[in-house]
Queue: 3 jobs
Job 1
Amino acid sequence: MRLLLLFALFTCSLTLVLSIYPGLLNGFVVFVAIALLWLILIGWVAISTLQAWRNQSSMRPVIAIALMLAISYGLLKFYVPRRVAFAFSRPAFEQWLAAHPEKLPEGRELNSKLGIYQVEDYFAGDGDDHYFRTYHHGDGLGPDTVSYGFAYQPNLKQSPLGAAGYKLHPLEGKWYWFIASNDW
């Protein structure tokens, strides 16, 4: 049961740490690896629960694991790790914006570290919207790209990275994290 508890702690911790980076859990390889870990964990918990119930032994470890899973789910559902990590990194993003007031609608390759995030590219929209792409991957079998990152005062309808599947999730103040695809 101790091994199961350690495996649950590892799986939950790994998932929470990776969730800090927008889109990383959506990449195919990481998604498959994390899904496999979670399937093993859920199966193992189910088998252990049945064994503990059958043998009339203590259910405390199973309850502890169930609580760990529920807390991890809640933290992931409300993007708590990402919000906390971005709160620490936000000053670096704001300093970069203050130091680079020029608008670059065609994009600019950054490959810079802003806080804990490795920012690939910077894009500016038509208005006062600013986008920092931190991760991207292919969109299935086609040539389309799904981009993830952070946006300051984003356009609510579209981004310079594409409008398909464009979603904004509030972080704090005028900062959001986004998903966008160039599959117009």
Job 2
Amino acid sequence: LLYIAMDGVAPRAKLHNQRTKRFLQVKDTIEKTKQIERIKREILANGGLLPKDNHQKEQIKLFDENCITPGTPFMSKLSDCLLYYIYNRMNRNLAWQSIIVIFSNANEPGEGEHKIINFIRQQLTQLDYNKNIHHVLYGTDADLIILGLTLDECHITIIRNEFKPSQPRPCEICQQFGHDIITCKGITTKEKYDQQLNSIKTKYIFVDLSLLRDELYQSLEIDKQLLFKWDHKRFLNDWIFICILVGNDFLPNLSSCEIHEDIIKLLINIYKENVLKSNYYLTENGILNLTNVEIFLKDFSKMEEKIFKNRHEINQQKEQQQNLNQSIYNRIFSIDKFKHELVPKGAPLPPFKPKWAQKNSPTFDNNSTSIVIHANRTQDINSSTTSSSINILTNQSSNEMKQKLSNLSLITNRQIEDNTSDNDVRLWEDDWHKQYYTKKFGVDPKDIEKFSLQVAQEYAQGLRWIFQYYFQGVPSWDWYYPYHYAPFASDFFKIKILSYNFNKDSKPFKPLEQLISIIPSQCSKEYLPNEWYSLTIKKDSQIIDYYPLNFNTDLNGKRFESQRIALIPFVDEKRLHRVLKNYYSLLTIEEQKRNKFENSRLFIHSKHSYYNRLKKEFDTNNGQKTIYENLFNITKTIEIFGYIWRDSNDDKIISISKTVKAPISSYDNITNNQVICVQYCY
């Protein structure tokens, strides 16, 4: 069996996360474009060279990642191409004729990885499920491993692309390697400037979840200390909850939870102490035990103030070291020093071609920067040490080292900005709790106690939602966390009395509804229907406030700009539907297809052992929806449960012996089709 799943409409809880990413991306792109144009003007004014205009005009249009969203023409075309690929492989490749293929496109609601996990979970519920089946999942989503661990007694291997950080990229101005746009001086050689990196082969990581489970069980080392029988499965579920608490795509993370600070290790230690002391678990049968979660968070909150103060001390030390690096840079490369030592007075500057910009040398020579790393690690450097460092550095190629230290200086400055730009809330001071709620939420000090409880209860409800989402599927399509910021661990009291029930009758957004909810107006014209696009730009639009051209961002104590919070409004679902109801009738036929929900499709070749039975059932029932228990038996080992039917209105279903038309002109049509396709759900 091969199951291919595209991302469909996500639950409402993730919508603001998607919206934030796209708004920040557009904001950064606009600012970066202005920066590039300014730097280009400066380079030309200083006599530098840039790539020829005719080369720039010949460049292919950059790929816009916003098109990878349900409801766009791109996703519709991608779905058609994948359907063609399945028909092509099953008709022309013998190996594919012995398997069954299930395909879920972007018009079926749900995130791709959750579609597959829910399919496996449904098969596990069958009494005669074959426990020897081994599932192999491939995907790039970070939570795929966590999702796999939620399936008990299931053999799963995860395949992921190996992550390789800091891969060299060409400068976006001169197309050369070894620097970024900030330090670009234009083309430094008359040779061909569009040199390419050697192709890097993709490597894959295989994760055996059975082995991972065993490692996690052993890592706790608690069994022998307990006075009761230890339940490994419940511990694993508790561990998953702790990972969710530290970070997820649905809630802003707690200010005291930073994964690079080994917070998971700290939380596990608190968990172990509580298990030994109180004999409890945090979860049960895929549901959070809020009483025990409250106890756990209360114990964690005792560490919260210490975490904030330790973090501040570490940041201060880093800033001192970074300032030291800047001081060394300034002393070595002062203008007065270089104008006499490097070039005779009045002489023109010689052409400079750094080693890392030469042909066949696209990357830095890291060996020459070791002294800088040493200086960065040093806590207390006296003047003699600094002088010694300067002598060592100036013995190297001065221009080359200047460039490298310039890059270091720029990185240093960015880190300092990241660490100090959010000083409005000083979490290391005694009134940190009051500061946070008055400045982040705008709450009157006298209302903080009541308001913080409200925020914590919404957050706890979010933790409940996420945990159920991972273990049981979507608990509610319309729930979401309504704040930009998280509470503190110390705010989680009385959450055990939560009585909020999720709306099980809620429905997902349709593809175009989600698209207009998350895409900024600056890049929506290409993807939205014309009349819908006008709602994002016209001043008299009833939802124009959802599409701010300028908005504030907040690092909120984080280190990197990618972690910023975009302070943009949340989308009111009822208000959006009220406005859009007058625009549905204006959709073209093609837009209506992009906006409708679809089911998965199941494919089977005429040579497959089950084909004749399937054909007979459809002939008998005239294509009506038919329920099969233990629907298939693939190679007598893999059983599939679900519902199949033939939809006569589905134009993607091609009858036997008919021709499958290619979606792209460069591909050929598939004649005499031998693959039957039916609608499928479970």
Job 3
Amino acid sequence: MNLQWLRHGNCTRTGIKGAGLALAALMISTWTCTGANAWAQIATRIQLSTAQQSASDSPQTVFTAKVADVSGSPVNTGTVSFESAKGSIGSAVVENGAATLTVDSLPPAANSITAVYQGSANYASSSAAVTAQATAAPAVPDFTVTATPSSLTVSPGGFGTTVISITPINGFSEMVTLSCSGNPAPSTCVFSPTTVIPANGAVATSTLQIQTQGAAGKTTLLVHPSEQQRNSSGHVAYAVVLPGILALLGIGALRKRSGWAGLRALGFVALLAASGFGLSACNVRYDYLNKPPAANPGIAAGTYTMTLAAYGNDGTSVTSHTINLTLTVN
């Protein structure tokens, strides 16, 4: 038997009574409601807090929204949306009276976050705001490079020395390779060592020596031209005439001894070879006197700006820095 036995606003409770049972012994009862918000929703309150945490060296911001009814009992249904002036940063389901959202970074200028409880069939919506600082970006390992001193003064043929310091930042501990460019010719950069590793936060150093070259050789002839011509003509005469005279004398002497024909021919060949060697030696000396070695003027006086580069490589990315060095040659 169907009974309509209680009304509440736009809702009616009906029941099915078994035969012979009193009204209080209804076996099944249901509410049938018409219209929106037939039952008044229970008011809620929300409390929002924020905290910082680190995971894998990356700082994160954690928002926790606690949702309860007016009596303080936790709400275990519904969703909380976390909003900033730039829009939503995420949402979380309410479980055991709380909704938690963890973010790696906040939008720029998002210094106020509002937690909005969306409500449910039985609970009304509510909201709360909290001031939050934007999460700082993860610290990137890096290094700085300095030279002490950063200016050197040398004389041609001399050298200057400076100490290169590699200072790690944010735990940088990779190998750093040093090089220089822009050094004037003729000069060289010598690092000792060429690579350094700033381990355990300690400063790593390398000594840079800039070596210069002074003037070498002459730009004038080694012998005065008139003296050179006089000596050259005399040497040529000795180199050609003397072996020829010896060759003729040898041939004349050997003719008187007919039994020595083979020896006479051998002596003639030897004399010709001596003449050839004499001319060759004369030619070398002539070239040396007339074509002296090229002169090397050495490094020119002046002030030069050099570039020192330091490269660090962790296998996936390269970190580089450059500084200027000033070299003055007197």
